[in-house]
Amino acid sequence: MRSFTSQAKWADRLVDAWTASGHWCEDSEEFMRSFAAAQSLYGSTQSPFSQETIGNFYDGSGRSRISLLRIITTLTHFSDAAGVKNVDIYSLLGVAYQASFKMNQERNRTQSICDWPLWLARITESSYWCDPVHVSPERVLGPTAFARLLVVLAQRNALNSIQFLQRAPDGLSPTTSLAQIQQMTHPDIIRRFLHISIYRIKDYMQGAVYLRREMPARAGVVFYGAAELAAAIIAFVDLTGDTYTQATVGARPALVVALGSLAQISMQMKQYKRTYSLALTAAEVDGKSNTGERIDPNLVEVYRRLARDAKKALDLQ
Prior knowledge:
Blueprint: H1 2-5, H2 10-21, H3 28-42, H4 51-76, H5 86-98, H6 107-110, E1 113-115, E2 133-135, H7 138-155, H8 178-184, H9 187-211, H10 216-239, H11 251-268, H12 272-288, H13 297-316
Antiparallel strand pairs: 1-2
Helix pairs in contact: 2-4, 2-5, 4-7, 5-7, 7-9, 7-10, 9-10, 10-11, 11-12, 11-13, 12-13
Keywords: Membrane, Transmembrane, Transmembrane helix
Transmembrane segments: 219-237, 249-267
């Protein structure tokens, strides 16, 4: 990460890459006119633009966008060590903000990455299990990146002071203005963002519930994405006191259920260390939650029992 952030104008270049990844997709009419013109000129059989070409374009664009969001999110966990400045955070806010709010259903904005190595398909023993290369879709990873950027600003006591800035900080991306920064970090906008994020978590987890029986491993990566977003929101709220508590009701129980579900799936895959850690964490988060945000005690007991069973399995190894 330090090598990445040592490059000249790295934040500006990241913002430029984001803008380029969505240029045509944000103006689908222009793209479709070009496609129709090519078909009209060459005919449907000789046109250089096939339906497969269009699909590949959207898939590639979607993968580019979420990969950029993944980089931003990961950077926030090492922001101090990597030398990420506040002005870099300000520049990246716009990227995460755009990915967090209005969500169209274009193919490039619903794309996710979940790839396992080819050799794994020929292995049935659980000891050879490995995690996929997974990147959540934009509707989940966008809010995660935005929440994590807010966390860094809150940790540095730099969030509230943004509203009092008189001029744009030196080094700010040319595509970002002071007015935009102040809008994105305004308390009303943040509350709206938090409400939207809670809805996205619940909606995303609902999809994982349907996957669990037939595709437990795929369901696991969905629960992981939901847990990451919920954890980012909770980290932000813990740093800002009671300011945003009402806007985040539901985040803690969602995190508990996501972690507990991951523990159950990990046990199914015979990943005992992971099961033990996830199950204990789920029970711990629930125990630290306010009474009104605790989940069904019977479900918490299931998680504790999972931890005990995983510990026994580890002791036998």
